[in-house]
Structures are given as structure tokens and as C-alpha cells.
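Q: I have 191 residues here and want to know how they pack in 3D. Can you give me a structure?
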Amino acid sequence: MRIIPVVLLSILIGLGYSCKQTKKESEKEMKEVENVEEEVKVEQVSFTMQAKSGSEVSGMVTFTEEAGTVSMKAELKGLSPGEHAIHLHEKADCSSDDGKSTGGHWNPTAQPHGKWGAAEGFHIGDIGNFTADEEGSATVEFSTDLWCLGCDDANKNILGKAVIVHQGVDDFTSQPSGAAGARISCTGIIE
């Protein structure tokens, strides 16, 4: 008769150990799930720039979205040395020789043209000016939380827009485009 309590005690000890082990494994799995949820989703798209208006400007533009911020990196060559303007335009259509098929600056919030961040207002596509070196090369880097890649917010989604490089500089005051001159390079931002 004493065998049954010993067997029963052994079974209970074994179940207790098994439950502790299962609990430890469950906690470990939950921590792994939490770590996966903490990973940040990163989206990236790249596009080749096309020469326009008789220029020889080429390059690559990459957009990366991470943690609610979109970063743009444009690597350009074939520019004349000095300052040039770069903007986002309303349509991802680089079909015309002069780049005007892209329409005007992207301005979903109906603000006046201006320098990015200006209190008086600015277009969401008003990136600004950059400087090409003596060899005609330039790298433009820009980041903002006012853009997104493919989100449902029409005031932020840059897909379906175009990147335009201008021959001249943006004066940040002339309406509606800053008097930046010819459109010398273009790429459409499409999915």
C-alpha cells in the first residue's frame, strides 16, 4: 500500500518540474516575440535619374523609410559646378524632354513656395539647394517625417511624385517655384 503514495508523489514532482520547464520556455518565447515586435520596419526604393533639357545629368535617388522618417539620398553627376535646386514635383511622369510633364512642385497642403521649414509656409516638395563640386558631382541628403512611402495619407505619400533637379538655384521667394530654371534631371517615384 505504501507504493501508491510513493508513485503518486513521484508523479506530482514530475508534473511540477514539467510545469516549471513549460513556464520557462513560454517566458522565453514571449521575450523573443517582444524582441521581434521591437524590430523597426524599413522600406527602401531606388530610382535612376534621367537627363532632361539637353543636359547630361544622371544619377541615382534612394528613399528609405524607417521609424516614421523618410530619408532621401541623391547621388548626381554631369552637373555644372555650383548650386542647383532639387524638388519633388506632382507627377511621376518624366516623358517630356524638358521635364515639365511632372507638373509643378508637390504642394498637397496648398502653401506658398518657400524654404523648407519656413514659418511663412513651404511646399512639401520644396527640398532646397545643393552644391555640385568642380567635377559636376553632388550628393544630396534630406530627411523628414512629413513624407511616407505608400501610406494612406495623401499629404505625405511621395509615391507617384517626381524628383526634379534644376539648372539654377531656388530663391525661396518667387512664386510658385523659386525661379530655379530649367529642369535638367528627372525621376518618377513609383512603386
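Q: Anything worth noting?
A: The beta strands are 42-51, 58-66, 69-77, 82-89, 126-132, 138-144, 161-166, 183-189. Residues 3-38 form the longest helix (36 residues).
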